[in-house]
Design goal:
Helix content is about 40%, strand content about 15%. It is α+β, with helices and mostly antiparallel strands. Strands 1-2-3 form a three-stranded antiparallel β-sheet, covered by helices on one side. The chain has a domain of about 100 residues: Double Stranded RNA Binding Domain, CATH 3.30.160.
């Protein structure tokens, strides 16, 4: 029996599902600024906070996901059409850089997922009756709170 692990065959690649889009490095523009946060005196001397600027039109996304990205990240996109992400959670510039790239990739992955369209349904007759009955019960409870008018 030993150390063999139980393996399950999945119909799709889990890693592709989690991170499908890879950001091309040639469209990334990095700027490094003095940041706040962890680092003590070190943080005052080094520009470890990363500002990543990605021109949205250069992402080569289909029109629908591009529109969803612009809608979902409207506050992060400036008038020039650049998606701006700041990352300063880590002391290391490299780790902040990797985090900024992964956040942009996550935003794009979310935009690539097509939202489910809502199918309009009508309430059933039984649910209408239940609703009306509960309204009558609530009304009678409120009526019983009134002072008698005799």
């Amino acid at each position: 029996m030993g150390g063999e692990a139980f393996k399950v065959a999945l119909p799709f690649n889990v890693h592709q599902l989690i991170m499908a889009f890879k950001l091309p490095p040639e469209i990334c523009e990095f700027r490094f600024i003095l940041g706040s946060g962890p680092g003590g005196q070190h943080v005052n001397k080094t520009a470890s906070t990363v500002e990543l600027r990605v021109t949205v039109s250069k992402l080569q996304l289909p029109p629908a996901p591009l529109a969803r990205l612009k809608e979902q990240q409207a506050k992060r996109i400036n008038k020039l059409g650049e998606l701006i992400i700041q990352s300063g959670n880590h002391r290391s510039q490299l780790m902040n850089r990797q985090e900024a790239v992964s956040r942009v990739e996550k935003f794009i992955d979310e935009a690539l997922i097509r939202p489910k369209s809502r199918v309009a349904t009508r309430p059933t007759l039984a649910s209408k009756k239940r609703r009306l009955e509960s309204k009558k019960v609530r009304g009678s409870v409120k009526n019983q709170r009134k002072k008698p008018s005799w």
